[in-house]
Amino acid sequence: MLTRVGLLILKILVVVLIGWVFWPQFRWNEFADALARTSGPTALAVLTLFWFQAVMAALRWRWILRQLGHPLTTGASVEAWLVGQCASQILPAVVGGDAARIIRLRRYDVPTTDALVSVVIDRFAGFVALVVLSAFTVPMLTAYKTTLIPDEIFWAVGMSCLLVAIVLLSLRWTANTAVFRRIPRLAQVQAALRALRPTKEGLLLFTLIGLGTNMTVIISAFLLDRKSVV
């Protein structure tokens, strides 16, 4: 039987192998140059912001899981969220990270259906926060210095707002349509959706965390870019 150290080494080798397969365009020399141009205080600030983002995002996910009847601790939520983030950096898009989160929840005895619903709702909540933030900020940025913002950005924000409305209506309709109760798997999804009752505290939590997680990314990008320009 593999020891804990041996199992950890095996996991690292698997991650490196997956990264080598899916990141053929990765250039180590450019990565090393970027690290060399980044000062210690800047790197520490960005890492601190990342940890704030991890805790905030995990708290939002934890609230969803509690609504579904699975009271995970804050530490367990952060750990499962970080596993998903790690997978997202290696596997294509964010689907791999979401799948890793669903699998990780099995360790805490969360049924697959509830885990799937929690991840989908969590991902959708983050998307809604980003759309709302964009809807409020893009009109104030009709021009940046002398460069006009492309019309495609306004179309993207508008279509995203429409998509949010459609998905919200679809979730409400799906949760209350009796025909889905005849299909076992869909009936479980339907029951999980009905268990998610939006409250004032929950909406306030989602708003603050949605704003906070996006601001950590914005500030981190500003710090790294500012350092690279200097």
List the helices and strands and how they pair.
Elements: H1 4-22, H2 28-37, H3 40-67, H4 74-90, H5 95-105, H6 112-137, E1 143-144, E2 147-148, H7 151-176, H8 184-195, H9 200-229
Antiparallel strand pairs: 1-2
How would you describe what is shown here?
A hairpin with a 2-residue loop joins strand 1 and strand 2 (147-148). The protein is globular, with a radius of gyration of 20 Å. It has helices at residues 4-22, 28-37, 40-67, 74-90, 95-105, 112-137, 151-176, 184-195, 200-229; strands at 143-144, 147-148. The mean pLDDT is 76. By secondary structure, it is mainly α. It has 9 helices and 2 strands, in the order ααααααββααα. Strands 1-2 form a two-stranded antiparallel ribbon.
